[in-house]
Design goal:
Low-confidence stretches: none
CATH class: Alpha Beta
Helix content: 25-40%
Number of helices: 6
Number of strands: 11
Radius of gyration: 19 Å
CATH topology: Stationary-phase Survival Protein Sure Homolog, Chain: A
Shape: globular
Structural class: alpha/beta
Order of helices and strands: EHEEEHEHEHEEEEHEH
CATH architecture: 3-Layer(aba) Sandwich
CATH superfamily: Survival protein SurE-like phosphatase/nucleotidase
């Protein structure tokens, strides 16, 4: 049987990125799309616990979920699909998910939830602009997906793929960088004199490569490369364990 590929995202079920992915992945396997019924950007790895989860089928292979990307993966694996998929692809997100933004990303969380379920997964994002290059990002996603379907991924590892504004045709394995900016509050008053705030980012120079000649995701996409960062579920700071052990003796 052909491999089963599950698509999800945090931009919502009506994202035009799904069409690009379906076209690019058509020769690799059977596609099922299970995605939030509305935009759920920056939802991170949140789950819906304080209200029921609901979904409805909107076409032969598309399901809209009243929930987060992580909810979508769980519902797809346990309820919607007859058996777990061979691969989960989360995206293509409109906007990069690099550096600190990985912590907030619903797109990356969709892939991480798949890893928790024991399924190989890829998160894919592209540079945000008026007309994002979903087709280019989808072609790269298909290329990487083919390799993952053939060789698999180590347990608890996902790939975080980011497509640059102007691609130079090359891919680079990268490490997670740090945010090229800081979050600030923009304060204002509404017409009734009540105070409100918008979150805003002030940009600054991104951090340099973290280890030797390994590029950070920020530096790679700025230079025109597709950034491919392996991320892991285990967040233990192992390099700090020995030092910390001395604190608690």
């Amino acid at each position: 049987m052909r491999p089963s590929i599950l698509l999800t995202n945090d931009d919502g079920i009506h994202s035009p990125a799904f069409k690009a992915l379906e076209t690019a992945l058509a020769d690799l396997g059977r596609i099922t799309i299970v995605a939030p019924d509305r935009e759920m950007s920056a939802s991170s790895h949140s789950l819906t616990l304080n209200q029921p989860l609901r979904f409805h089928q909107i076409s032969s292979n598309r399901y809209a979920v009243q929930g987060t990307p992580a909810d979508c993966v769980i519902l797809a694996v346990i309820k919607i699909l007859e058996k777990p998929p061979s691969l989960v692809i989360s995206g293509i997100n409109r906007g990069l998910n690099v550096g600190d933004d990985i912590a907030y990303s619903g797109t990356v969380a969709g892939a991480l939830e798949a890893a928790l379920q024991g399924i190989p997964a890829i998160a894919v994002s592209t540079h945000s602009r008026e007309t994002p290059d979903f087709n280019g990002a989808a072609a790269v996603a298909s290329r990487i997906a083919s390799k993952v379907l053939e060789d698999g991924l180590p347990p608890d590892i996902v790939l975080n793929v980011n497509f640059p504004e102007q691609w130079n045709g090359e891919l680079r394995v990268t490490c997670q960088g740090r945010r090229a900016g800081k979050t600030v509050l923009v304060e204002n008053l509404d017409p009734r004199g009540r105070e409100y705030f918008w979150l805003h980012e002030e940009l600054h120079k991104p951090h340099e490569p973290a280890r030797g000649d390994l590029l950070t995701d920020y530096v790679a996409v700025k230079a025109g490369y597709v950034s491919v960062s392996p991320l892991q579920l285990d967040r233990t700071a192992r390099a700090f364990i020995d030092r910390m052990s001395g604190w608690i003796k």
